[in-house]
């Protein structure tokens, strides 16, 4: 297990170095940053002074090493648009995205797993056919269309929920949360439903397929022959093996929720990192784009490594195979 963890950490370091290289090259291909930091009538001497202050007169490999060293400490420089530290901008926007993703992920698990079990245990019932129909719509319908429909129904027609913004938030240190106010909770409903809908339908269909496959295996037949109750067979033996691949998919999708919350934040004008990234793209704010790329990649790497470790804990066969490979 220790060897597996060390290998995963080494792989993660190389992945992050590759991502850092891509982020660093954005500075090279998005034009000369000096043009964005000086006045149009700046002299050559002033431009050279800025270039020297930023270290742009150094060799490329020196600039890359300095970029990696600063990124490792969370220093991505100043935003070209806001003239503020990029790390500060991300820290201000991260709580909004984190809470949105947390609620969406929780909804997808709390609803997707029970619905998947229900449709697997009753494959020919009317409720299963109805859920399958709506799950197909949930997977096929573009996310932004879902968001617009939710706004139309629950904000415009019914007037129950707000259509944009985060509502009133409470500051707890550097973290701002909407969980402690009614308006914050109401503002969270529609964007979290929009963000979780695809994940919910995916988890439901995955649990259903895995559960039906597990119920056809020999050890389930032996459990029935021993006289075990359906409750014990379904929820003690079958469900445990059903959830192993679900954990892997959910871990990957959790990173996807963070990366692709951009669409949700744009539709609902949610003040998160995705909205900040869209603004950075519009204004060519390369430091913010590079920092967003590195941060999201880091989250992906951490989640994937954690999922791999959980997978090895839940499935003893992986530990046995790893031990054999080590010998």
Characterization of the model:
- The chain has 14 helices and two strands; from the N terminus they run αααααααββααααααα.
- The chain folds into two domains: 2-72, no CATH class; 88-326, MetI-like fold (Orthogonal Bundle), CATH 1.10.3720.
- β1 and β2 form a beta hairpin.
- With 327 residues, the protein is mainly α.
- It is globular, with a radius of gyration of 24 Å.
- Strands 1-2 form a two-stranded antiparallel sheet.
- α11 (261-267) packs across α12.
Number of domains: 2
CATH superfamily grouping of the largest domain = MetI-like
* Rg over CA atoms: 24 Å
Number of separate helices: 14
Helix content: over 70%
CATH architecture descriptor name of the largest domain: Orthogonal Bundle
Query: Which overall shape is indicated by the principal axes computed on the Cα atoms?
Result: globular
Write the layout of secondary structure elements.
Blueprint lengths: L1 H28 L4 H4 L6 H10 L6 H13 L13 H36 L4 H15 L2 H15 L12 E3 L2 E3 L4 H33 L3 H8 L4 H30 L1 H7 L5 H11 L2 H29 L1 H11 L1
Antiparallel strand pairs: 1-2
Helix pairs in contact: 1-4, 1-13, 5-6, 5-8, 5-10, 5-13, 6-8, 7-8, 8-10, 8-11, 10-13, 11-12, 12-13, 13-14
């Amino acid at each position: 297990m220790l060897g597996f963890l060390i290998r995963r950490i080494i792989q993660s370091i190389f992945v992050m170095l590759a991502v850092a290289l891509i982020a660093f090259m954005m500075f090279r291909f998005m034009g000369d940053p000096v043009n964005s930091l000086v006045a149009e009538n700046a002299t050559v001497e002033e431009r050279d002074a800025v270039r020297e202050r930023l270290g742009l007169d150094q060799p490329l490999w020196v600039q890359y090493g300095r970029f990696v060293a600063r990124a490792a400490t969370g220093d991505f420089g100043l935003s070209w648009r806001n003239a503020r530290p990029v790390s500060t901008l991300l820290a201000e926007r991260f709580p909004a995205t984190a809470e949105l993703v947390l609620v969406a992920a929780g909804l997808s698990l709390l609803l997707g797993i029970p619905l998947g079990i229900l449709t697997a245990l009753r494959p020919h019932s009317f409720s299963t056919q109805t859920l399958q129909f709506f799950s197909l719509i949930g997977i096929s319908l573009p996310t932004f269309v879902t968001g617009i429909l939710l706004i139309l129904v629950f904000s415009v027609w019914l007037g129950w929920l707000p259509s944009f913004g985060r509502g009133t938030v409470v500051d707890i240190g550097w973290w701002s949360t909407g969980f402690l106010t009614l308006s914050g909770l109401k503002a969270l409903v529609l964007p979290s439903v929009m963000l979780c809908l695809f994940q919910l339908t995916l988890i439901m269909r995955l649990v259903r397929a895995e559960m039906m496959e597990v119920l056809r295996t020999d050890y389930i037949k032996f459990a029935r022959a021993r006289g075990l109750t359906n409750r014990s067979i379904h929820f003690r033996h079958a469900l445990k093996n059903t959830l192993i691949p679900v954990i892997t998919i959910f871990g990957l999708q959790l990173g996807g929720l963070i990366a692709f919350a951009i669409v949700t934040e744009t539709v609902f004008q949610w003040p998160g990192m995705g909205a900040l990234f869209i603004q950075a793209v519009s204004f060519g704010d390369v430091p913010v784009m590079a920092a967003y790329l590195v941060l999201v990649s880091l989250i992906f790497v951490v989640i994937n490594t954690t999922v791999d470790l959980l997978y090895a804990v839940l499935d003893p066969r992986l530990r046995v195979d790893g031990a054999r490979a080590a010998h």
